[in-house]
Amino acid sequence: MPREAVPQRDRVGLGLRLRTERKARQLTLKELSVRSGVALSTLSKMELGQSSVGYEKVAAVAQALALDVGLLFAGPAAAPASGQALAVSGEDEGPLYRSDHYEYRMLATAFPGKRMTPLRTRIAARRRDEFSDFIGHPGQEFVMVLAGQVRIEFETGELIELKKHESAYFDSGVGHIYLSVGPRDAELVIVMA
């Protein structure tokens, strides 16, 4: 996976959706900062499309706004057909978001009222020192390796290594990072709830 920032148009779109949702709730940037735990300056840069941030910050903001995180990445899903209880994602469908360490493709974005956030993820990071800190967010996380091998390191000092078709389930409130092991970027399915 190339290590490039989120394309400008994607950052701008996310920023516009963030600003719209914040204003619809009549929140100031400062109030959203307090609710989400994301620095006010980071929120401002996010809204202006000037900052490429990791999924964890976008997820924290979405939670503070009581939104499906997919809405910030992709905008509202099309209205489902009457009685629709199915969403299908093709290989290259769904919003793509890149950070320095990970590439996320949102899955099943058309499903209304999701209670989980499924992602197909590619891990570029190889070393702990590539991160300033562990990443934690409320909820639970399931991960299954599709290709390559991944090490998940936790702020508690625990670590696990998973290879193709192995999986793990954990409390995502415990800070953690994903690292690819070996020359190939690991490819995963991650489901957050």
UniProtKB/TrEMBL annotation:
Would you name any one GO CC term? cytosol
Indicate the segments forming the HTH cro/C1-type domain, all copies. Answer: 18-72
The GO terms this record gives for MF are: DNA binding; DNA-binding transcription factor activity
CDD domains to which the protein is assigned, alphabetical = cupin_XRE_C, HTH_XRE
Gene3D superfamilies for this protein: Jelly Rolls, lambda repressor-like DNA-binding domains
Q: Does the keyword DNA-binding apply?
A: yes
Tell me the InterPro entries matching this sequence: Cro/C1-type_HTH, Cupin_2, Lambda_DNA-bd_dom_sf, RmlC-like_jellyroll, RmlC_Cupin_sf, TransReg_Diox_bact_type
Q: Does the keyword DNA-binding apply?
A: yes
Q: Which keywords, in A-to-Z order, does the entry hold?
A: DNA-binding
Please identify the protein, giving its name as recorded.
Helix-turn-helix domain-containing protein
Question: Origin organism of this chain?
Answer: Ramlibacter agri
